[in-house]
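Write out this protein's structure.
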Amino acid sequence: MSSHLHSVLVVEEKSAFLELMEEVLEDKVDMVRAYSSEEGVELIKNNEPFSVIWSGHELKSSNVNGRDFLNSCCEHSPLSARILNSYSLKQSELQSMVDEGEIHSYNHHDHVSVVIEPIESAIEMGVQNYHANLFRKFIDLDGSHLEPQDFVKESSRLLDRLEDISSKEGEGDFEGRSLEIEKLISYQNLLLGKVPLTLKRQKDLLDQFKTTQRNENIGQLIERNMVLISNQKEYLIRSNRTVEQNREKIRKASVHIYRIRKLVKDLKDELGDGG
């Protein structure tokens, strides 16, 4: 099993910010730099799919801004998760882009003292979405135009990649990312709902190979695929549980902040009355 890290393409014009990201993400991902959207496109075309593509929005030396670049990535690298980093767009605009599926996460902090955690959580959210995208590709794999053995081998290749990255997933801390959490849970539940039919499709293939007494190795590969599909089901269940815990933590923190603000208001009112 491969031990390589997730690959993350970062498109930013500011060298200092790129160096900060490299420091923050050291030993967590394999980060690749690009200084313009055009350079980013070339890297995407000439490399294996990146797990995550991060882009600054304000790309003054590029032909397009970061938002348009990430939109183009839907075509160039459809499996990659997309993250937009912007200081000019309002948070509500960025959240609307998440809600519409244009991006998977974002960062809008520019101060060093508060940017580290958002970088880490945005990348982790991207990794989770990449995993889900990869599993979706496996589920949607159409074998109608392939020889059965070729379909089984392609299925196995995707499952091997999924098994590889599942072994390296972190716990994830998504503080302040309630919208992204809701989207991810909904997406993973959609995939979980498709697992029974996916397993049945593999079982039907196995029965077909047994009936026709075809290559025994292919039959063993199908049985292995079925085990790996079950593993991915368990992974999605665990991931949803972790993300749910993050959602509950955010909810409790919000309630706590609300209570503190109310107490502060009450105290100000009381002091005002006393004055």
